[in-house]
Design goal:
membrane; 92% helix; DUF2065 domain-containing protein; mainly alpha; DUF2065; 62 residues; 3 helices
């Protein structure tokens, strides 16, 4: 189980590193937009991301 968790974390780091590697200018623009968001908007994005991830886990593991 810990191997799967480490693999998932490693894959997350690879995916999160793609945008800054491929297009640093776009990454800066996206980051600037996130900094301009309110706390509530950021929390909503985080919640949506977590729910989408849980849904994907449920669909793929069943």
């Amino acid at each position: 189980m810990s191997d799967m968790l480490l693999g998932a974390m490693a894959l997350m780091l690879v995916l999160e590193g793609l945008l800054p590697f491929l297009s640093p200018t776009l990454w800066r623009q996206v980051f600037a937009r996130v900094l301009a968001m309110s706390d509530g908007q950021i929390r909503f994005v985080g919640l949506s991301s977590m729910l989408a991830g849980l849904l994907m886990l449920f669909l793929f593991l069943n």
